[in-house]
Amino acid sequence: MLKELINEFYSSKEKDKEKVAFYISDAGKCPRAVWFSLKNYPKKPITARVMRIFEHGDYTHMRIMGALFSLGLVKAVEIQIPDNEFIHGRADAIITLDNEPAILEIKSINSFKFKNTKPEKDHVLQLQLYLHYFKLKKGVLIYENKDNQELKEYVIHYDEKLVNELLTGFKGIKKHADENKPPIIPEDLEEWRCNYCVYLDSCKKIEDERGK
Length: 212
Prior knowledge:
Strand 6 (about 140-145) and strand 7 (about 150-155) form a beta hairpin. The chain is about 45% helix and about 20% strand. A five-stranded mixed β-sheet has the order 2-4-5-6-7, sandwiched between helices. The chain has a two-stranded parallel sheet with strand order 1-3. The protein is an alpha/beta fold and about 210 residues long. The mean pLDDT is about 90.
């Protein structure tokens, strides 16, 4: 009985909101999935279990930020990026690193991903956009293993070419949205993105109409 009540509580917190712009978290996603989101297509609801996973990430963020505050390294927290053409976002924090300001992003991941020797591609792309809009040259991705609380970090330096490619991609999706035409699925898109996509049913329908 309690399990059902708890799941109902978390499920009720997930409500669709009309999307009117791109977000930093869209960086690295399938362009068609971003297009679906921008066009406010119906999507599969996020489960109560996934909502609890998100909440666990929030607690991880608070614990790590608490330690950094105590160390006197935090300059600002939860900072909205400056107004711009069409991208919204909010960085976790700006900290002082080696006597210079740096963007900080905190992520919690499972043991399998924690074993990787490189940061997640999507996380790097998101951090690059934050560096671009805050006009900073350096950022830090700090990962906590959600299974055992082990930490590791990656220092990321601003890559202007990569950011320009990202912004060009967003502009392309915006053009497709204005013309009401879904973008094609990239040939190199990882299969897991499709398997977990909340717009999978809508995407299959489009592909079926195209005879694929």
